[in-house]
Design a protein that fits this description.
Blueprint: H1 3-23, H2 30-40, H3 52-57, H4 59-73, H5 82-88
């Protein structure tokens, strides 16, 4: 794989887990996830954090690329939660994500 793809896969997987934590109520807000990811495990600060990363690259683009990885690697860890798919249609910041 190309070096850029490897970096993207590393960041996307972390962001996917962060969105699952937000979706399941483990995190109370996207800001909590961003702060924890930057200060806790060193997620690249230029992205704003693991959840702001979705805004940084575009939520629809993020979903598209995760779908490509899921198909390419046949791995369920790349599956995007339905809640994020529905949220992406609203074209808002991840910081406006509310669990239903």
């Amino acid at each position: 794989p190309h070096r850029d793809e490897i970096g993207k896969r590393i960041l996307h997987r972390q962001a996917l887990e962060a969105i699952r934590c937000l979706d399941e109520g483990v995190l109370r807000s996207a800001a909590d996830g961003d702060l924890g990811s930057v200060l806790g495990w060193g997620f690249p600060i230029y992205t704003g954090g693991a959840l702001s990363y979705l805004d940084f690259i575009g939520i629809s683009n993020f979903i598209f690329e995760c779908d490509q990885f899921a198909e390419k690697f046949q791995d369920k860890r790349w599956l995007v939660p339905d809640s994020l798919r529905m949220f992406a249609q609203r074209d808002k910041s991840i910081h406006q994500f509310i669990r239903d």
